[in-house]
């Protein structure tokens, strides 16, 4: 009951807010981002906001609320669904809980490399995947780069799959990601990114998995110094808009927003590439134990994910095949 009243209040408050915003000459919209200001995705968000403002000659303003000011990613998606938040930049993983087809984009060892992933995202599959989030009351605007995710932990060096056995590993709030950890023989612990540092510090979890920039930016390297470069997933980032918000805008303004988002992608990719390199160096300089696996061991990691392909292959067989066959 209490939850109902809180929700009702949030809805009324949000509607009041957006009406106020729409009533004024300038349309002010809010974008949620969990990373800090200097993170490559936030840089992409700010570029998107700049382009919207420029293209609308200052009529539309996108305010970027970074550093998880508007909540964790799962909560933010729900708020975008009912229009309390206008845009969010999020990882594909939490959105896949609402738009299942996205699972096909985040299967382990799916892409040969970053170029392969971008050929998929920039092609017809990427377009249809952006459209697929409409089922979840969202509008998919663009993709951003998040490189590859690897395991890190506070306990020991992971040199092979056997070392993962029984480890408690934090994952994103996604069923596929939980099953992936189980398939690796470890025990998954889903939680928002903001809770991971203290969970590592207090030993609630043994490890987590992420790319270099998140490992450094969220200071996880301070409390989990063993990083193994196994690159098990490449999970793209996505910017989504609220259907509620977009439906209040003219078709021209909707188009302008879509265009601005598309144009922000190459900017973000550039920022990403630079940051990935410097953050790998930062981890080294901070004295982390970094384990680079040889191709044979990587092949074992990949082979271990076969059961996941058999399970998810049923629903996404065609899509996965098309992705694999993309040049
Ligand atoms: C980072 C993504 C962020 C996710 C986070 C996580 O940029 O959107 O929330 O991983 O693991 O790489 O939750």
What are the main properties of this structure?
alpha/beta; D-Maltodextrin-Binding Protein, domain 2; five-stranded mixed β-sheet; four-stranded mixed β-sheet; 11 strands; globular; binds beta-D-glucopyranuronic acid; DctP_fam; TRAP dicarboxylate transporter; carbohydrate binding; signal
The CATH fourth-level homologous superfamily of the largest domain: Bacterial extracellular solute-binding protein, family 7
The topology string of helices and strands comes to HEHEHEHHHEEEHEHEHHEEHHEHH
- Relative strand content: 15-25%
Q: Gap between N and C termini, in Å?
A: 53 Å
Question: Measured on Cα atoms, how large is the radius of gyration?
Answer: 20 Å
CATH architecture of the largest domain: 3-Layer(aba) Sandwich
* E-strand count: 11
Largest sheet: 5 strands, mixed
User: Could you tell me which ligands this complex binds, including any ions or cofactors?
Assistant: beta-D-glucopyranuronic acid
Q: What average pLDDT do the residues reach? A: 94
Proportion in helices: 40-55%
Low-confidence stretches: none
CATH topology of the largest domain: D-Maltodextrin-Binding Protein, domain 2
Shape summary: globular
How many helices?
Answer: 14
Estimated structural class: alpha/beta
CATH class of the largest domain: Alpha Beta
Structural summary, described in words:
This protein has 327 residues and is an alpha/beta fold. It folds into two domains: 2-146 and 235-276, D-Maltodextrin-Binding Protein, domain 2 (3-Layer(aba) Sandwich), CATH 3.40.190.170; 149-234 and 280-325, 3-Layer(aba) Sandwich (D-Maltodextrin-Binding Protein, domain 2). It is built from 14 helices and eleven strands. It has a five-stranded mixed β-sheet, with helices on both faces. Helix 2 packs antiparallel against helix 12 (251-285). The protein is globular. Bound molecules: beta-D-glucopyranuronic acid. Residues 34, 41, 73, 90-91, 146, 172, 193, 210-211, 214, 237 line the site of beta-D-glucopyranuronic acid (BDP). One of its GO terms (molecular function) is carbohydrate binding. InterPro entries: DctP_fam, TRAP_DctP, TRAP_DctP_sf. One of its GO terms (cellular component) is outer membrane-bounded periplasmic space. It comes from Candidatus Moduliflexus flocculans.
């Amino acid at each position: 009951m209490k939850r109902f009243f809180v929700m009702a209040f949030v809805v009324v408050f949000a509607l009041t807010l957006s009406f106020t915003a729409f009533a004024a000459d300038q349309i002010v919209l809010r974008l949620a981002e969990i990373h800090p200001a200097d993170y490559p995705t936030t840089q992409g968000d700010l570029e998107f906001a700049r382009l919207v403002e420029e293209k609308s000659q200052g009529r539309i303003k996108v305010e970027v609320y970074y550093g998880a000011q508007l909540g964790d990613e799962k909560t933010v998606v729900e708020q975008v669904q009912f229009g309390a938040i206008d845009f969010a930049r999020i990882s594909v993983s939490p959105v896949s809980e609402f738009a299942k087809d996205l699972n096909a984009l985040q299967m382990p060892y799916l892409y040969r490399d970053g170029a392969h992933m971008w050929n998929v995202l920039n092609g017809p599959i990427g377009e249809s995947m952006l459209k697929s989030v409409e089922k979840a009351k969202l509008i998919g605007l663009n993709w951003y780069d998040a490189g590859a995710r690897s395991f890190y932990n506070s306990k020991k060096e992971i040199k092979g799959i056997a070392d993962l056995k029984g480890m408690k590993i934090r994952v994103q709030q996604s069923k596929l990601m939980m099953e992936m950890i189980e398939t690796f023989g470890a025990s998954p612990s889903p939680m928002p990114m903001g809770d991971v540092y203290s969970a590592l510090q207090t030993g609630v979890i043994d490890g987590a998995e992420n790319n270099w920039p998140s490992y450094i930016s969220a200071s996880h390297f301070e409390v989990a110094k063993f990083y193994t470069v196994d690159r098990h997933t490449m999970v793209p980032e996505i910017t989504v808009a609220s259907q509620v918000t977009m439906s209040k805008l003219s078709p021209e303004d909707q188009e302008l927003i879509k265009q601005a988002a598309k144009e922000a992608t190459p900017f973000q990719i550039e920022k990403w590439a630079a940051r990935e390199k410097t953050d790998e160096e930062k981890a080294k300089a901070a004295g982390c134990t970094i384990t680079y696996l040889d191709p044979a061991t990587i092949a074992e990691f990949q082979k271990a994910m076969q059961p996941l392909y058999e399970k998810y292959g049923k629903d996404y067989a065609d899509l996965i095949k098309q992705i694999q066959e993309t040049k």
